């Protein structure tokens, strides 16, 4: 079950991809299948070991094309163990709502993303998430649980502050919001409640079979009650100085200008002559010192 829509977030074979906070690895696996060079990183060592096993199984089964690579590793999202501009693509899905220093995480992602690279961020959507919080404290008041609910414009604002340029958004998993409302209403840890069991069975069937009826239903529900908010952005290239300005800055300074201590270009002959003529014709009192320095004089 993917939250990132790869039709809106194109991935090319050979792209260097970081799946940050990869969890069980669903997006990392998809990137690997598409021929990327994937690093799946999470602070949960148990999940990382499972992801590594699945990477090995995918390689053995020939699910990844030639040239693709996949690594699973433990790491801290606030101190990524990679040099600047290491990746073409960064994905962080359903992670930022868990981390107190979300601005620090964004800064680290921007640091390791190359200029022109792309980033996908997904978080729980405000409306459906607010209902979950209202129905159950246990849903979010747990160790490592959700500590904030993002509004869409708030997340986009933080992405812009970090130096990213958002280019698209959408909502996903409209069928999943009612499931979590039922979970919160009957008890987050109570999987035996009949409505919860029945709805879970429906979701598993939908994920495995992908029937047209549920696909159409979810497309209709996503804009209304989609469980996740997804934002896509790019890291802009640094502006380049115009070639003419660069050449002028690198040109040697004439000796006469160096002696005068001026950084302004010397006056043309006609301009100098024009300035001299009125001075010769003015009466003596006009020749008194002026508060405004003459052109070309040291300031």
Can you walk through the features of this model?
By secondary structure, the chain is of the alpha/beta class. Helix content is 41%, strand content 17%. A seven-stranded mixed beta sheet has the order 3-2-1-4-5-7-6, with helices on both faces. Strand 4, helix 3 and strand 5 form a beta-alpha-beta unit. 27% of the residues are buried. The C terminus is likely disordered.
Computed over alpha carbons, the radius of gyration is: 30 Å
* Overall strand count: 7
Q: How can the largest sheet be summarized?
A: 7 strands, mixed
- Arithmetic mean of pLDDT: 85
Q: How many DSSP H or I helices?
A: 11
Put the structure in a nutshell.
With 299 residues, the chain is α/β, with parallel strands linked by helices. The protein has helices spanning 26-33, 45-61, 102-112, 126-135, 152-161, 176-186, 194-209, 212-225, 243-250, 255-260, 269-281; strands at residues 16-20, 37-42, 69-74, 87-93, 113-124, 165-172, 228-234.
């Amino acid at each position: 079950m993917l939250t990132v829509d790869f039709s809106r977030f194109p991935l090319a074979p050979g792209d260097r991809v970081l799946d940050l906070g990869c969890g069980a690895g669903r997006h990392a696996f998809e990137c690997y299948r598409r021929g990327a060079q994937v690093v799946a990183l999470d602070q949960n060592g148990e999940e990382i070991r499972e992801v590594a096993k699945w990477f090995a199984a995918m390689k053995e089964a020939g699910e990844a094309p030639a040239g693709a690579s996949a690594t699973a590793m433990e790491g801290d999202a606030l101190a990524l163990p990679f040099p600047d501009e290491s990746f073409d693509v960064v994905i962080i899905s359903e992670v930022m709502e868990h981390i107190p220093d979300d601005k620090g995480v964004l800064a680290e992602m921007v640091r390791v993303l190359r200029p022109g690279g792309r980033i996908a961020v997904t978080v729980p959507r405000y409306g459906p998430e607010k209902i979950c919080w209202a129905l159950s404290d246990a849903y979010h008041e747990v160790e490592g649980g959700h500590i904030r609910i993002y509004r869409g414009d708030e997340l986009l604002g933080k992405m812009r502050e970090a130096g990213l340029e958002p280019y698209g958004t959408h909502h996903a998993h409209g069928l999943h919001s009612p499931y979590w409302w039922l979970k919160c209403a009957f008890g987050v840890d109570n999987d035996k409640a009949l409505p919860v069991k029945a709805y879970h069975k429906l979701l598993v069937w939908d994920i495995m079979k992908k029937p047209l009826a549920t696909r159409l239903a979810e497309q209709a529900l996503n804009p209304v009650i989609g469980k996740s908010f997804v934002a896509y952005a790019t890291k802009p290239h640094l502006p380049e100085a115009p070639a003419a300005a660069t050449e002028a800055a690198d040109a040697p300074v004439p000796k006469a200008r160096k002696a005068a201590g001026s950084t302004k270009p010397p006056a043309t002959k006609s301009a100098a002559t024009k300035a001299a003529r009125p001075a010769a014709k003015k009466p003596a009192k006009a020749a008194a010192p002026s508060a405004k320095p003459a052109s070309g004089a040291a300031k």
